[in-house]
Amino acid sequence: MYLVDSHCHLDALDYTEQHTDLNSVLTAAKQRDVKSCLAVSTTLPGFQALKKMVAGHQNIFLSCGVHPLNLDEVYQPETLLALAADSQVVALGETGLDYYYQQDNIPLQQECFRQHIQVGRQLNKPVIVHTRDARADTLSILKEERAEECRGVLHCFTEDIDTAQQLLDIGFYISFSGIVTFRNAEALREVARYVPLDRMLIETDSPYLAPVPHRGKENQPAYVRDVAEYLAVLKGVELETLAEVTTNNFSQLFKVTL
Ligand SMILES: [Zn+2]
Ligand SMILES: [Zn+2]
Protein backbone atom coordinates (compact mmCIF):
# COMPACT_ATOMS: atom_id res chain seq x y z
CA MET A 1 0.00 0.00 0.00
CA TYR A 2 1.19 3.50 -0.83
CA LEU A 3 -0.17 6.55 0.99
CA VAL A 4 0.79 10.18 0.41
CA ASP A 5 0.49 13.08 2.83
CA SER A 6 -0.44 15.84 0.39
CA HIS A 7 0.11 18.70 2.85
CA CYS A 8 2.48 18.92 5.80
CA HIS A 9 4.78 21.48 7.37
CA LEU A 10 7.92 19.44 7.95
CA ASP A 11 9.81 22.52 9.15
CA ALA A 12 7.31 23.11 11.97
CA LEU A 13 7.51 19.71 13.65
CA ASP A 14 9.07 19.43 17.10
CA TYR A 15 12.64 18.20 16.61
CA THR A 16 13.63 18.64 20.25
CA GLU A 17 11.25 16.28 22.05
CA GLN A 18 9.02 14.46 19.51
CA HIS A 19 11.50 13.59 16.78
CA THR A 20 15.27 13.37 16.52
CA ASP A 21 15.38 14.51 12.89
CA LEU A 22 13.56 14.40 9.56
CA ASN A 23 14.72 10.83 9.02
CA SER A 24 12.87 9.64 12.11
CA VAL A 25 9.68 11.40 10.93
CA LEU A 26 9.91 9.75 7.51
CA THR A 27 10.73 6.34 8.98
CA ALA A 28 7.69 6.51 11.26
CA ALA A 29 5.61 7.47 8.22
CA LYS A 30 6.93 4.59 6.10
CA GLN A 31 6.09 2.13 8.85
CA ARG A 32 2.47 3.08 8.22
CA ASP A 33 2.81 2.98 4.41
CA VAL A 34 3.05 6.76 4.09
CA LYS A 35 5.81 6.78 1.51
CA SER A 36 5.64 10.28 0.12
CA CYS A 37 4.67 13.76 1.20
CA LEU A 38 4.37 17.30 -0.03
CA ALA A 39 6.29 19.73 2.17
CA VAL A 40 4.37 22.99 2.02
CA SER A 41 6.08 26.32 2.53
CA THR A 42 4.53 29.43 4.09
CA THR A 43 7.23 32.08 3.44
CA LEU A 44 9.93 32.44 0.78
CA PRO A 45 12.88 32.30 3.24
CA GLY A 46 11.07 29.32 4.77
CA PHE A 47 10.92 27.70 1.34
CA GLN A 48 14.68 28.01 0.92
CA ALA A 49 15.31 26.47 4.35
CA LEU A 50 12.79 23.69 3.62
CA LYS A 51 14.52 22.91 0.34
CA LYS A 52 17.81 22.39 2.21
CA MET A 53 16.05 20.33 4.85
CA VAL A 54 14.55 17.81 2.41
CA ALA A 55 17.58 17.62 0.11
CA GLY A 56 18.58 14.01 -0.52
CA HIS A 57 15.29 12.55 0.70
CA GLN A 58 13.30 10.51 -1.79
CA ASN A 59 9.69 11.29 -2.69
CA ILE A 60 9.47 14.53 -0.75
CA PHE A 61 8.01 17.22 -2.95
CA LEU A 62 7.96 20.95 -2.33
CA SER A 63 5.54 23.81 -2.76
CA CYS A 64 6.63 27.42 -2.89
CA GLY A 65 4.51 30.29 -1.65
CA VAL A 66 3.55 32.79 1.02
CA HIS A 67 0.69 31.95 3.41
CA PRO A 68 -1.99 34.69 3.68
CA LEU A 69 -1.11 35.13 7.37
CA ASN A 70 2.58 35.74 6.58
CA LEU A 71 2.25 38.83 4.42
CA ASP A 72 3.80 41.26 6.91
CA GLU A 73 7.15 40.41 5.30
CA VAL A 74 7.12 41.95 1.83
CA TYR A 75 8.16 39.71 -1.05
CA GLN A 76 8.75 40.37 -4.73
CA PRO A 77 6.54 38.55 -7.26
CA GLU A 78 9.67 38.01 -9.40
CA THR A 79 11.30 36.17 -6.49
CA LEU A 80 8.23 33.96 -6.11
CA LEU A 81 8.37 33.16 -9.83
CA ALA A 82 12.11 32.43 -9.77
CA LEU A 83 11.92 30.14 -6.73
CA ALA A 84 8.75 28.36 -7.86
CA ALA A 85 10.37 27.54 -11.21
CA ASP A 86 12.64 25.06 -9.37
CA SER A 87 12.10 21.53 -10.69
CA GLN A 88 11.52 20.17 -7.16
CA VAL A 89 8.58 22.56 -6.74
CA VAL A 90 5.34 20.87 -7.76
CA ALA A 91 2.89 23.59 -6.64
CA LEU A 92 2.37 27.20 -5.65
CA GLY A 93 1.31 27.83 -2.09
CA GLU A 94 0.04 27.70 0.33
CA THR A 95 -1.80 30.80 -0.72
CA GLY A 96 -5.37 32.00 -0.29
CA LEU A 97 -7.42 34.11 2.08
CA ASP A 98 -7.80 34.02 5.85
CA TYR A 99 -10.35 36.53 7.14
CA TYR A 100 -10.74 34.60 10.40
CA TYR A 101 -7.35 35.50 11.83
CA GLN A 102 -6.65 38.69 9.88
CA GLN A 103 -8.97 41.34 8.46
CA ASP A 104 -6.75 44.42 8.40
CA ASN A 105 -4.95 43.48 5.16
CA ILE A 106 -7.68 41.97 3.00
CA PRO A 107 -6.71 43.83 -0.21
CA LEU A 108 -3.11 42.66 0.23
CA GLN A 109 -4.22 39.04 0.80
CA GLN A 110 -6.29 39.19 -2.37
CA GLU A 111 -3.47 40.69 -4.42
CA CYS A 112 -0.97 38.04 -3.28
CA PHE A 113 -3.49 35.25 -3.86
CA ARG A 114 -3.94 36.51 -7.45
CA GLN A 115 -0.16 36.63 -7.93
CA HIS A 116 0.23 33.03 -6.84
CA ILE A 117 -2.42 31.89 -9.33
CA GLN A 118 -0.80 33.94 -12.10
CA VAL A 119 2.58 32.36 -11.39
CA GLY A 120 0.93 28.94 -11.23
CA ARG A 121 -0.55 29.47 -14.70
CA GLN A 122 2.72 30.81 -16.04
CA LEU A 123 4.65 27.76 -14.79
CA ASN A 124 1.78 25.32 -15.31
CA LYS A 125 1.89 24.25 -11.64
CA PRO A 126 -1.22 23.87 -9.47
CA VAL A 127 -2.07 26.10 -6.50
CA ILE A 128 -2.56 24.93 -2.92
CA VAL A 129 -5.34 27.07 -1.52
CA HIS A 130 -6.04 27.93 2.12
CA THR A 131 -9.35 29.60 2.92
CA ARG A 132 -10.98 30.58 6.18
CA ASP A 133 -14.09 32.76 6.56
CA ALA A 134 -13.48 33.87 2.97
CA ARG A 135 -15.49 31.43 0.90
CA ALA A 136 -17.07 33.83 -1.63
CA ASP A 137 -13.91 35.86 -2.32
CA THR A 138 -11.82 32.71 -2.65
CA LEU A 139 -14.16 31.30 -5.29
CA SER A 140 -14.43 34.56 -7.25
CA ILE A 141 -10.66 35.10 -7.33
CA LEU A 142 -10.04 31.51 -8.46
CA LYS A 143 -12.54 32.02 -11.28
CA GLU A 144 -11.40 35.55 -12.24
CA GLU A 145 -7.76 34.44 -12.41
CA ARG A 146 -8.71 31.36 -14.45
CA ALA A 147 -7.25 28.93 -11.94
CA GLU A 148 -8.89 26.10 -13.89
CA GLU A 149 -5.93 26.43 -16.28
CA CYS A 150 -3.36 25.36 -13.67
CA ARG A 151 -5.81 23.64 -11.32
CA GLY A 152 -5.16 23.10 -7.65
CA VAL A 153 -6.47 21.87 -4.34
CA LEU A 154 -8.49 23.41 -1.54
CA HIS A 155 -6.50 22.06 1.36
CA CYS A 156 -7.86 21.14 4.79
CA PHE A 157 -11.38 21.49 3.45
CA THR A 158 -14.00 22.71 5.96
CA GLU A 159 -16.50 24.40 3.63
CA ASP A 160 -19.93 23.22 2.44
CA ILE A 161 -21.11 21.01 -0.42
CA ASP A 162 -21.93 23.97 -2.66
CA THR A 163 -18.35 25.27 -2.35
CA ALA A 164 -16.98 21.79 -3.04
CA GLN A 165 -19.13 21.55 -6.18
CA GLN A 166 -17.93 24.93 -7.48
CA LEU A 167 -14.32 23.82 -6.94
CA LEU A 168 -14.93 20.48 -8.67
CA ASP A 169 -16.43 22.43 -11.58
CA ILE A 170 -13.13 24.28 -12.13
CA GLY A 171 -11.11 21.08 -11.98
CA PHE A 172 -9.96 21.39 -8.39
CA TYR A 173 -9.29 18.63 -5.89
CA ILE A 174 -10.61 18.61 -2.34
CA SER A 175 -8.22 17.63 0.44
CA PHE A 176 -9.44 16.22 3.75
CA SER A 177 -7.42 16.42 6.96
CA GLY A 178 -7.87 14.95 10.44
CA ILE A 179 -10.77 17.34 11.00
CA VAL A 180 -13.04 14.84 9.22
CA THR A 181 -12.47 12.43 12.15
CA PHE A 182 -13.52 14.94 14.81
CA ARG A 183 -16.67 14.15 16.73
CA ASN A 184 -18.46 17.41 15.85
CA ALA A 185 -17.58 17.28 12.11
CA GLU A 186 -20.79 15.71 10.76
CA ALA A 187 -21.31 18.51 8.20
CA LEU A 188 -17.82 17.91 6.84
CA ARG A 189 -18.46 14.16 6.69
CA GLU A 190 -21.45 14.96 4.45
CA VAL A 191 -19.09 16.80 2.11
CA ALA A 192 -16.67 13.85 2.13
CA ARG A 193 -19.52 11.50 1.20
CA TYR A 194 -20.38 13.85 -1.67
CA VAL A 195 -16.92 14.45 -3.18
CA PRO A 196 -16.07 11.76 -5.77
CA LEU A 197 -13.10 9.57 -4.86
CA ASP A 198 -11.22 10.53 -8.00
CA ARG A 199 -11.04 14.17 -6.87
CA MET A 200 -10.07 13.58 -3.27
CA LEU A 201 -6.71 14.09 -1.57
CA ILE A 202 -5.68 13.36 2.02
CA GLU A 203 -3.37 15.34 4.25
CA THR A 204 -2.26 15.88 7.82
CA ASP A 205 -1.45 19.64 7.79
CA SER A 206 0.97 18.49 10.48
CA PRO A 207 2.03 19.58 13.05
CA TYR A 208 -1.55 20.87 13.43
CA LEU A 209 -4.90 19.04 13.64
CA ALA A 210 -3.93 15.52 14.73
CA PRO A 211 -6.73 13.08 13.79
CA VAL A 212 -8.57 10.79 16.19
CA PRO A 213 -7.06 8.79 18.02
CA HIS A 214 -4.03 11.10 18.32
CA ARG A 215 -5.84 14.29 19.32
CA GLY A 216 -3.84 16.51 21.65
CA LYS A 217 -0.57 15.12 20.32
CA GLU A 218 1.59 16.76 17.69
CA ASN A 219 0.44 15.70 14.24
CA GLN A 220 2.89 14.03 11.81
CA PRO A 221 2.79 12.56 8.29
CA ALA A 222 2.38 8.99 9.65
CA TYR A 223 -1.09 9.95 10.88
CA VAL A 224 -2.43 10.51 7.37
CA ARG A 225 -3.12 6.80 7.54
CA ASP A 226 -5.73 7.46 10.22
CA VAL A 227 -7.41 9.98 7.91
CA ALA A 228 -7.31 7.39 5.12
CA GLU A 229 -8.76 4.64 7.30
CA TYR A 230 -11.57 6.91 8.43
CA LEU A 231 -12.43 8.08 4.90
CA ALA A 232 -12.36 4.51 3.57
CA VAL A 233 -15.12 3.54 6.02
CA LEU A 234 -17.05 6.71 5.20
CA LYS A 235 -16.84 6.06 1.45
CA GLY A 236 -17.53 2.33 1.82
CA VAL A 237 -14.32 1.19 0.13
CA GLU A 238 -11.31 -0.86 1.22
CA LEU A 239 -8.40 1.08 2.67
CA GLU A 240 -6.21 -0.21 -0.19
CA THR A 241 -8.62 1.29 -2.72
CA LEU A 242 -8.72 4.65 -0.99
CA ALA A 243 -4.91 4.67 -0.82
CA GLU A 244 -4.53 3.79 -4.48
CA VAL A 245 -7.03 6.36 -5.70
CA THR A 246 -5.77 9.26 -3.55
CA THR A 247 -2.15 8.47 -4.47
CA ASN A 248 -3.10 8.45 -8.17
CA ASN A 249 -4.90 11.75 -7.71
CA PHE A 250 -1.77 13.20 -6.14
CA SER A 251 0.36 12.06 -9.11
CA GLN A 252 -2.15 13.49 -11.57
CA LEU A 253 -2.54 16.89 -9.96
CA PHE A 254 1.11 17.51 -9.12
CA LYS A 255 2.43 15.71 -12.26
CA VAL A 256 4.79 13.45 -10.35
CA THR A 257 5.66 9.79 -10.74
CA LEU A 258 5.61 7.76 -7.54
ZN1 LIG B 1 -3.70 26.17 5.50
ZN1 LIG C 1 -0.82 24.24 5.87
From TrEMBL:
**Protein family according to the UniProt entry:** Belongs to the metallo-dependent hydrolases superfamily. TatD-type hydrolase family.
Q: Which organism is it from?
A: Pragia fontium DSM 5563 = ATCC 49100
What is the protein's name according to its record? TatD DNase family protein
Keyword Hydrolase included in the entry's annotation: yes
GO CC annotations on file: cytosol
Task: Give the matching InterPro entries.
Answer: DNase_TatD-rel_CS (IPR018228), Metal_Hydrolase (IPR032466), TatD-like (IPR001130), TatD/YcfH-like (IPR015991)
| Residues involved in a divalent metal cation 1 binding | 7, 9, 94, 205
Q: Which UniProt keywords apply?
A: Hydrolase, Metal-binding
Which amino acids does the record list as binding a divalent metal cation 2?
A: 130, 155
Matching entries from PANTHER family are given as:
D-AMINOACYL-TRNA DEACYLASE
Source species, domain of life: Bacteria
